[in-house]
Amino acid sequence: MPLYWQSDWGFSSCRRGKDANPLFRQLAEQSGGRQPLWNFHKYLVGRDGKVVANYTSMTTPGDKAFLAAIDKQLDAPAPAARN
After folding, report:
1. How deeply is 27 buried, as exposed, middle or buried, from its count of CB atoms within 10 A (0-12, 13-18, 19+)?
2. In 53, 60, 68, 70, which residue has its Cα 20 to 30 A from 76's Cα atom?
3. What is the pLDDT of residues 15-73, one digit of tens each?
């Protein structure tokens, strides 16, 4: 059964499998194929647009390791501007 999210605008998007939204498909590909198993799966994306880490729905928003990973990415220098 595919996972879906519903936006405030009333449309939904598949997060898993062959019908996955391209964003979720790319996030999973960059995470070694790890797709969300349930709602609230988290992908941490670095300043360069690449997935740095991903966390299951069991990881709470206040998890110390999760927050430390976010802080580390926020402290990282911005990538060089593209020409």
Report:
1. buried
2. 60
3. 677 777 788 888 888 988 777 777 788 999 999 889 999 999 899 999 999 999 999 99
Domain positions in the chain: 4-75
4-75 belongs to which homologous superfamily? Glutaredoxin (3.40.30.10)
Among residues 63, 65, 2, 66, the alpha carbon closest in space to that of 37 is found at: 2
- What is the rounded distance in angstroms from the CA atom of residue 21 to the CA atom of residue 58? 23
What are residue 6's phi and psi, to 5 degrees? -120, 130
Other C-beta atoms closer than 10 Å to the C-beta of 54 total 19
Q: How far apart are CA 38 and CA 41, in angstroms?
A: 6
